[in-house]
Amino acid sequence: MAQNSLEKQEAKLKQLNQKIKAEKNKIEQNLGKQIIKSVSLDYANLSNDRVKLLAKQFSEFLKENPVDHQS
Protein backbone atom coordinates (compact mmCIF):
# COMPACT_ATOMS: atom_id res chain seq x y z
CA MET A 1 0.00 0.00 0.00
CA ALA A 2 2.86 2.40 0.79
CA GLN A 3 4.41 1.66 -2.61
CA ASN A 4 1.14 2.59 -4.35
CA SER A 5 1.14 5.92 -2.49
CA LEU A 6 4.74 6.56 -3.50
CA GLU A 7 3.92 5.75 -7.13
CA LYS A 8 1.06 8.22 -7.07
CA GLN A 9 3.29 10.91 -5.55
CA GLU A 10 5.96 10.16 -8.13
CA ALA A 11 3.41 10.50 -10.95
CA LYS A 12 2.23 13.84 -9.53
CA LEU A 13 5.82 15.05 -9.24
CA LYS A 14 6.53 14.01 -12.82
CA GLN A 15 3.42 15.85 -14.01
CA LEU A 16 4.40 18.96 -12.03
CA ASN A 17 7.91 18.89 -13.50
CA GLN A 18 6.41 18.69 -17.00
CA LYS A 19 4.20 21.71 -16.26
CA ILE A 20 7.22 23.65 -14.97
CA LYS A 21 9.23 22.78 -18.07
CA ALA A 22 6.36 23.81 -20.35
CA GLU A 23 5.96 27.12 -18.51
CA LYS A 24 9.69 27.83 -18.75
CA ASN A 25 9.60 27.14 -22.49
CA LYS A 26 6.61 29.44 -22.88
CA ILE A 27 8.40 32.25 -21.01
CA GLU A 28 11.60 31.76 -23.04
CA GLN A 29 9.69 31.89 -26.32
CA ASN A 30 7.74 34.97 -25.24
CA LEU A 31 10.93 36.72 -24.10
CA GLY A 32 12.59 35.97 -27.42
CA LYS A 33 9.60 37.22 -29.39
CA GLN A 34 9.40 40.42 -27.35
CA ILE A 35 13.12 41.12 -27.80
CA ILE A 36 12.91 40.53 -31.56
CA LYS A 37 9.83 42.72 -31.81
CA SER A 38 11.17 45.54 -29.63
CA VAL A 39 14.37 45.94 -31.64
CA SER A 40 12.69 45.26 -34.99
CA LEU A 41 14.97 42.41 -35.95
CA ASP A 42 14.45 40.80 -39.33
CA TYR A 43 13.82 37.07 -39.01
CA ALA A 44 15.58 36.54 -42.34
CA ASN A 45 18.85 37.70 -40.76
CA LEU A 46 18.61 35.55 -37.64
CA SER A 47 20.93 32.63 -38.33
CA ASN A 48 21.95 30.35 -35.47
CA ASP A 49 25.27 32.16 -35.16
CA ARG A 50 23.54 35.56 -35.16
CA VAL A 51 21.11 34.42 -32.45
CA LYS A 52 24.01 33.18 -30.30
CA LEU A 53 25.86 36.48 -30.76
CA LEU A 54 22.79 38.52 -29.85
CA ALA A 55 22.13 36.31 -26.81
CA LYS A 56 25.72 36.84 -25.66
CA GLN A 57 25.44 40.60 -26.13
CA PHE A 58 22.13 40.68 -24.29
CA SER A 59 23.59 38.60 -21.47
CA GLU A 60 26.55 40.95 -21.14
CA PHE A 61 24.22 43.94 -21.11
CA LEU A 62 22.13 42.40 -18.33
CA LYS A 63 25.25 41.65 -16.29
CA GLU A 64 26.20 45.32 -16.47
CA ASN A 65 22.62 46.52 -15.96
CA PRO A 66 20.89 44.16 -13.52
CA VAL A 67 17.14 43.75 -13.81
CA ASP A 68 14.91 44.35 -10.80
CA HIS A 69 13.21 40.95 -10.43
CA GLN A 70 10.31 42.31 -8.43
CA SER A 71 7.10 43.15 -10.27
Kindly report how far apart the N and C termini lie: 45 Å
Oligomer: single chain
Q: Assign an overall shape.
A: elongated
Total number of beta strands: 0
Main beta-sheet annotation: none
Mean pLDDT: 91
* Whole-number total of structural domains: 1
Counting DSSP H or I runs of 4 or more residues, the number of helices is 2
Relative helix content: over 70%
Based on secondary structure, the structural category is mainly alpha
Low-confidence stretches: none
H-E string: HH
Computed over alpha carbons, the radius of gyration is 19 Å
The portion of residues forming beta strands comes to: under 5%
Task: Please characterize this protein's 3D structure.
With 71 residues, the protein is mainly alpha-helical. It has helices at 2-38, 48-64. It has one domain (2-64). It has two helices and no strands. The radius of gyration is 19 Å and the shape is elongated. The model has no long low-confidence stretch (mean pLDDT 91).
Would you kindly provide a brief summary of this structure?
The protein is an all-alpha fold and 71 residues long.
Tags for this entry?
elongated
Write the layout of secondary structure elements.
Layout: H1 2-38, H2 48-64
